[in-house]
Structure formats: C-alpha cells, structure tokens
C-alpha cells in the first residue's frame, strides 16, 4: 500500500505544482494586460492634450482674424468719411470706395473659408478622439 500512497502523493504534488504554475502565468498575463491598458490610456491622454492645444491655437487665430477685420472696417469707414467731407463724390473717390468694398468682401470670404476649415479640422479631431478612446478601451477601432 505504501508505493500506491507514495505515487498518489507524487501525483498530488505534481498537480499542485501545475496549478501554481498556471496561477503564475495568469498573474503575469493580467499584469501585461494592465500595462497595455495603462499605455493606451496614456497615449490617448497625450493625443487629447495635443488636440486641445491645436483647438486653442485655432481659436486664437480666428480671434486675430476677426480683430483684423474690425480694424480694417474702421479704417475704411474713416476713409469714406474723409472722402465725403473733404471732396465731392467724384470718379476717383467712387473708384476708391468701390475698390475698398471689393477688398473687404474678399477678406470676408477668406475669413469664412478659414473658419470653415477650422471647423472641419475640429470635427475631424473629435472623431479621432472618439476612435482613440474606443480603441484604447476595447482594443478595436470603431
């Protein structure tokens, strides 16, 4: 009976060793998965910060454009007032006023184009942010 019990004890010890090895492997896999998730979250955070900086820069540029346009409008109004008070509406003055109006309209079109481009960029950045967050959470791109 003793050889059988010794064999059973050896088998039980081998099973216990296999169970311990499986537990170590599972713990290692869990630690690696946790590190991967933390790395993905850190990358998503960096990307979000970069996008926020880009949005702030775009907003600042838009504000600068609006300020420039206001200044140009004020200058044009002053010039038009000077022309009407200093001289009669002769052909030269009319031509100058027409050119100024055309320039102002072109500047407004340019500003509208830039604003549309900025809005499109912001929408694309929001879409990328959603994709990054979903891929970091699930491991799959949505």
TrEMBL record:
- Residue segments, region Disordered: 31-53
Please tell me whether the keyword Signal is annotated for this protein. Answer: yes
List the signal peptide residues. Answer: 1-22
Q: Which domain of life is it from?
A: Eukaryota
Q: Does the keyword Signal apply?
A: yes
Query: Which UniProt key words apply to this protein?
Result: Signal
Q: What is this protein called?
A: Uncharacterized protein
Q: Which organism is it from?
A: Eimeria mitis
